[in-house]
Amino acid sequence: MILVFYGYLTKIFLILLPLRLIFTITLIKNNLQLNKLKSEKFLNNIFAWIPSLSFGLKMIGSRNMDKIWPKLIFILGLGLVLFLATYKLTESPPVWLDEGVFTQVAINLAQFGEHSIMTGPGNFVSAWFATTGYSVTVPIALTFKIFGINLFVARSLMAVFIILMALVSYFLIKKEFDWLWANLSLLLLATFAPLYGNGKSVLGEVPGLFFLVSALFFLNISQITKRKSYYLFTGVLIGLCVITKPIFLVLIPAVIGAFYLKRKTIPNLIEQGIFLSLGFGLALIPWLLIQFSGSSLVQVFGHYANPYDLPFKIVLLTNLKQFISEAQPIYFLLLFVVWLLAYFRRFYKKQFISLTETTALVFSVLIFIAYFRIEGHYRYFFPAQVLALIYLPNSLGVLFFSYSRKIIVVIVVILIIFQSYQTIFHSWVATYYQSTRSAEITNTFSSLPKTKKIFIYQAPETVVFLAGQDYYQFFQITKLIVVGQDNLKMLMAGEMDFVVVPISLYQTQENLFKPYLKFKEFGKYLLLTKNI
């Protein structure tokens, strides 16, 4: 069953592998500088394509194009995902603290078999605070074992997760509805900038989404086939999703809630529950053994509940304000409201709604509610936004059922155009298309003598560039989570040969680095050397 599913994905990959080369050659040939394109030229080109769009809409109804059209859109959508997921892979977006922590866990797992953070040569502390589970760190550690330790290897695996998530999303929507909604969903996903901003970095959001969408896909199949093996495998996927990142913990009540809402339409409810729970347990047991090996349940779940240790009232008011003043939260809210209206319209009309979509919607509602309990970073509602986006074409079809499907296509295509504009010109990833930060870090570290003592201060994201060289480090995640505190004594005593520190921190904590002299600026960092 699993081999058949992934065998199908492999065939598609083999067909589309040349697309990356074609895109790259075209990019070089036309000397395309994405961040230097003029917005006006882009918009003029878009408007110039409107007649072609009209022609394309006519072709949708053409019998001669019935078989070709779906494949062309699919290739276009997957080609865009493949290109954008790998373009400027190590530079855009830039490396940052959280990514550095998760990457270090994978490095130590690959080199020493330790789920931990190394504070100095031979000294390790538990990585209980690293919220990304083994479903991400173990695959990265394996790729490090096979291909070597560097940022390109780690982010290449993240690109694979992006592509697989897009593929499974396409199959899910096609299975639930039809090829047109599936292809439109794929194009919406392909042009959605946060997919690459959150997905290319070594984080848990997109891998978790991959396991979630895969679980929904197999849940859909299991309702048709009634096979116990599908129930079991769906449970494993739910488990892998839940342990990937704390935000996915709400999938547990979401599944329970969806089954309760649809209980009258599920003939073998108890049997499904047993096999889903068994599969979930198989994925959960290794996580409990790994994640809690160096800490208590209370400590870990306390960190999950409020990682920033901020007052609830302040967090609630700040996050509520985002949904009336900031573009991405407003966009998410609009997508979410459209989905809710479409769902309840069908519910009121007593039309069929799948267990799969019900699970996805309940999960998204819980994500939305949970967003108001902690500091409002957009990636905390990102999974719900992606689900709302892939269900958008069908939701619009439900709300505007009395209009032609071509009207829905026009609405979605306009949205795809504006998303494309955002991704190319005004997204976080677009800001760093011409960045050379990672290259500068690599060049600087490669010039350092292997025998010298190096101290990394509040920059765990730079460790992956050290290529196995010994180091000492200190970083602080929250007021309560501080790593390498004891190393500060050696730093202040002038025992280090080189110190790497963010420029902004050096300017505010200059007294800490009195025994050292400025040696070199690279990226956003400063390299200090011992004052002899």
UniProtKB/TrEMBL annotation:
UniProt entry tagged with the keyword Repressor: no
Domain of life per record: Bacteria
Subcellular location: Cell membrane
Keyword Lipid biosynthesis: no
Its membrane topology: Multi-pass membrane protein
Broad class of where this protein is predominantly found: membrane
Segments traversing the membrane: 6-28, 68-87, 125-144, 151-173, 179-196, 208-225, 231-261, 273-290, 330-348, 355-374, 380-401, 408-429
Pfam families: PMT_2
GO MF term (any one): pentosyltransferase activity
GO cellular component, one term: plasma membrane
Residue ranges of domain Glycosyltransferase RgtA/B/C/D-like in the record: 140-288
InterPro entries: LipidA_mod_glycosyltrf_83, RgtA/B/C-like
Annotated keywords: Cell membrane, Glycosyltransferase, Membrane, Transferase, Transmembrane, Transmembrane helix
GO biological process, one term: lipopolysaccharide biosynthetic process
The protein's name: Glycosyltransferase RgtA/B/C/D-like domain-containing protein
Taxonomic path: Bacteria, Candidatus Vogeliibacteriota
